[in-house]
Specification:
The chain is an alpha+beta fold. The protein has a domain at 1-39 and 96-123. It has helices spanning 7-16, 41-50, 70-77, 116-120, and strands at 21-26, 32-36, 97-100, 107-110. Strands 2-1-3-4 form a four-stranded mixed β-sheet, covered by helices on one side. A hairpin with a 5-residue loop joins β1 and β2. The longest helix is centred in the N-terminal third of the chain and has 10 residues, at 7-16.
């Protein structure tokens, strides 16, 4: 469970979710969690119908190119997951931007579809 949603986290969620933004947030037990609300009708429907949060891995392995279509997902994480749902090819062809909000200032982990300057403009 997330221990704190800062005003900046709330502004970023409001501005960029659903969409290609992953936020790293503090957890109650002193660890962190990366959260994202994808802009995909199938994923959004699953979230809505479950009435809960859904934990899922990234569609690509760490430090690998983005998995922008089903064949790349299967080739990357296929052996490690029980289920893959083909939501169609990625519209953006870029990974999500990852921002660490566990530090005093937002820290860019990976720049993707949303530029770091757009993130900083939300402060």
């Amino acid at each position: 469970m997330v221990s704190d949603l800062s005003p900046l986290a709330l502004r970023l969620m409001d501005r960029f979710w659903p969409g290609p933004l992953t936020l790293i947030l503090p957890c109650i037990r002193g660890k962190t969690v990366a959260l994202r609300m994808p802009d995909n009708p199938i994923a959004l429907s699953l979230i809505r119908e479950s009435g809960s949060l859904i934990g899922a891995p990234s569609a690509n392995l760490s430090n690998r190119p983005p998995a922008t279509d089903i064949s790349k997902v299967i080739n990357g994480i296929g052996p490690y997951v029980d289920l893959i749902i083909d939501g169609g090819p990625s519209k953006l062809k870029m990974p999500s931007t990852i921002i660490d909000l566990t530090t005093p200032s937002p820290k860019l982990i990976r720049e993707g579809s949303i530029s770091f300057s757009e993130i900083l403009n939300c402060q």
